[in-house]
Amino acid sequence: MGRAGWAGRLAVAALLAALGSPGCLAAPPSSTDAAAEEDRADARAGGDAASSLTITRDPDLAIPDLGPEVEDQVEVEPICLLARLSLDIYIEHPWRGDLVVTLVGPGDRAVRLKEFDGTDAGHDLIGNYPDSLDPVDRLDLFDGVDARGAWTILASDAGPTDAGVLRSWSLNLDCQ
Predict the structure, then answer these.
(1) Per-residue pLDDT tens for 25-82?
(2) Which residues contact 97 (CB under 8 A, 6 or more apart)?
(3) Which of 17, 103, 121, 152, by CA, is between 20 and 30 Å from 59?
(4) pTM reported for the whole predicted model
(5) DSSP assignment string, 16-65
(6) 17: domain CATH number?
(7) Under DSSP, is residue 162 helix (H, G, I), strand (E, B) or coil?
(8) Which domain covers residue 31, as residue numbers?
(9) CA 72 to chain centre
(10) Half-sphere exposure of 86 (CA within 13 A, CB side)
(11) Residues 6+ apart with CB under 8 A from 7
(12) In degrees rounded to 5, what are phi and psi of residue 67?
C-alpha cells in the first residue's frame, strides 16, 4: 500500500476514534440496504458472497526497552473463511531493528512478522505485511482458516537504549 493509502487508513481510523466507533470498517455497502443485507445473509449462511473486512486498532501502547512483550487484541465475529490476510502496522521506534512483531490468530496459530535485526537503523515500522513489508513467516498460512475469534498483535523491543510505541494496526481480511 502506498503512502496515500496508508495515510487514508490512518485518517479514517482517527475519525472513527473521534466518533467513538469500535474500530471496525466493513467493505463499502452494496447499492441498496436490501442488497447489503442479502450479502450479509449469504455470508452468514456460507453463500457465495465474498467480502472484505478491515478492523483497525489505535492502542498507543508503549513498547518498553528490553521489556516484556506488549499485546493488543481484536475479536472477529462475522463468519469469514480467509482467502487472503494482510496487516497494516505503525510502530514508532528510533531503531526499527530492535522490534520483534508476531500476529496470533484464532486457535493460537502464530506468524512472525518481524525479527530483531540490530543492523537495521531505520526509524519506525510503517507499512503493510505482505504488500510493502516482508514477513518472516508467510501470511498465507491463514488462508482457508475461519477468521472468527481473537487476533493478537505482539510487539517487543529486543535491543538496548530506546523504546517504541505501537500506534495502530489494521487486520485486512478478504473472505471467500
Answers:
(1) 333 333 334 443 444 333 333 444 579 999 999 999 999 999 899 999 999 999 999 9
(2) 116, 117, 118, 119, 120, 121, 122, 159
(3) 121
(4) 0.72
(5) HHHHT--SEEEPPPPSSHHHHHHHHHHHHTT-S--EEEEEEE---EEE-B
(6) 2.60.120.260
(7) coil
(8) 3-175
(9) 10
(10) 13
(11) none
(12) -95, -170
Handedness of CA 140, 142, 143, 149 (dihedral sign): negative
Residues in the chain: 176
Burial readout 39-66 (b: 16 or more C-beta within 10 A, e: otherwise): bbeebeeeeebebebbbbbbbebebebe
Q: What is the CA radius of gyration of the chain?
A: 17
pLDDT higher for 149 or 39? 149
Number of domains making up the chain: 1
Helix (H) or strand (E) holding 146: none
Q: Which three cell numbers stand for residue 128?
A: 503493510
